[in-house]
């Protein structure tokens, strides 16, 4: 099949046609499959198991952590993991609180509660992930963290810091 790429839109025609075919044939990925892929990835981090971490990832995956580092490709994720283990890092908690899935764009949105130990320091925060899929694998995972814990607004003062 010939691939036609429209650089201004970022659309590859064969990808678009494939998605149309999958929807028409009833083969588009469902939310439970998408969520299971993310849960497998998270379980791998909780267990410090590189095979479980990379199993749901597309070879050309892009992972962006909530504090900025960007990993491109499975080999980059593997290197990140080995550095993580070398620092005696581990996940204390990573619980999915809610999720929503857009089947048309094959995008999963998840809220989570996260806590880890890395370089002898505890990191704990709430956040979300925007997860995209390609060929029934995670192709992009972009994490965002809340900068402060949620609190009830007093109705009297604005606080934007």
Topology (SSEs and partners):
Layout (H helix, E strand, L loop, with lengths): L4 E2 L4 E2 H12 L6 H16 L3 H5 L2 E8 L5 E3 L1 H13 L3 E13 L4 E12 L2 E14 L2 E9 L16
Parallel strand pairs: 3-8
Antiparallel strand pairs: 1-2, 3-4, 5-6, 6-7, 7-8
What features would you describe in this structure?
It is a single chain. With 161 residues, this protein is α+β, with helices and mostly antiparallel strands. It contains 4 helices and 8 strands. It has helices spanning 13-24, 31-46, 50-54, 74-86; strands at residues 5-6, 11-12, 57-64, 70-72, 90-102, 107-118, 121-134, 137-145. The strands form 2 sheets. The protein has a 6-stranded mixed sheet. The chain has a two-stranded antiparallel ribbon with strand order 1-2. The longest helix is centred in the first third of the chain and has 16 residues, at 31-46. The protein is globular. The termini are far apart. Residues 1-18 have low confidence and may be disordered.
Percent helix range: 25-40%
Structural class: alpha+beta
- Please state the CA-atom Rg, rounded to the nearest Å: 18 Å
Helical stretch count? 4
Q: Shape from CA axes?
A: globular
Q: Report the span from N to C terminus.
A: 53 Å
Percent of residues in β-strands: 35-45%
Descriptive tags:
disordered N terminus, globular, two-stranded antiparallel sheet, about 160 residues, six-stranded mixed β-sheet, alpha+beta, about 30% helix
